């Protein structure tokens, strides 16, 4: 009876050991195929490119180049073999109440040719009144952020506000929300919406990153004066621009008094300046500074024309005939030099603007006479505003194709191969070059150069799709070299009326997705357990497993963690053996 109990106990140990191995293998398989599936999805994304556009407020930033100044983003995703272009429609802003005085038609659309991470798809900033923030806020405003991702399965949704990580106020599906009222002491507020994907990588998309300026101007008052200088062609130096920093002036009754010490009279500008209340500046350009009609008394900055050396300029700003402050700056007028001889501007080299296209007919040929010929058409259009020249056109035939002598026509007229066409054999293929010996082909604006020729597939042509590429060589440097290349494909088949197709199937990424595999694994586990428990062979199998070095090493490792004392005892015993 005791022997049967020992055998049963040994059998149970063996069963547990085998089951543990199977469970570990099962977990490893699940992890492997999960990662395989994630890799496949990543490869699918790499076959696509995403481009985008964004809208900017010219009162905040004049030029494109900084997507962080965006108001709204729009994106487009295409396959990697296609051109990706998208333009934002500024009329979309009419759907919002804007936190800006800029007219809708003045907003600009900017392009982003490639967006590497578009998993955060949009981000909108509004103030406490629901107005769409276009790039500037006041210190007492609040900023409400709404960001949207492409799926709701990400983890650790976070807003980074001026490098500080903050949790969203709430999450609704793929959207996260945050209200920001503490802007710190800086002059700008940077906001980034991010999350973590299944592989632990952070989402970092330019679509969901914004920088907003904080206008911290105080009350009305003159704060600073900047006067820029510019050397003239006659060797003299003149003031080219004056900018006075003030508060947000609401009145249009503004005057500026300029004084230059005791050597020159005081002049008062009463017109010709640009008061930008939103920026808090008063600007006078060179043309207005030297226009006598803008100054009371008819004296302008021209009184300084012959001055050299340092000069202190004082400006006093009057609003509604009340002084709001005095500001000063010092300007240096160098000695009058010899007149500058203006060089004529260098003429820029004209660039060509051709676009090439290529077609072939029929789309399928066979490797037998009367069915192995194809006609190819090369079209080159001149998109420039002037006549442009083409030096040569080179066509590389597919492998196993051969040019048919005397088949070329240019703009509908047959040409002599000996004077225009050069055929070079390269391995098992041919390169054809069309080039006039003396002069290039001149193509007028909007005109085309069309080359038609024939080729045939011989016995070495490859079955399936074959690529035929053409390259155009213009006289002038091209604006876009990529537009000078074109290609087409032609199919070579045994029977063009019955072209074999290769079905596209998606392989299964999980062995356990099959019901029969699950049943088989279950039967295998049950049979193993039954044999070990009831059959003499099972007893032998369990004894063999328990006496194996693998099991003993595993048991010793278990003792090392759970029972150190027994671990050292067994290690000593095994060392003696």
UniProtKB/TrEMBL annotation:
UniProt organism field: Candidatus Dojkabacteria bacterium HGW-Dojkabacteria-1
TM annotation in the entry: 12-35, 515-533
Start and end residues of each stretch annotated as Disordered: 340-365
InterPro entries the record matches: DUF11_rpt
NCBIfam families per record: B_ant_repeat (TIGR01451)
Key words of the record: Membrane, Transmembrane, Transmembrane helix
Superkingdom of origin organism: Bacteria
Full protein name: DUF11 domain-containing protein
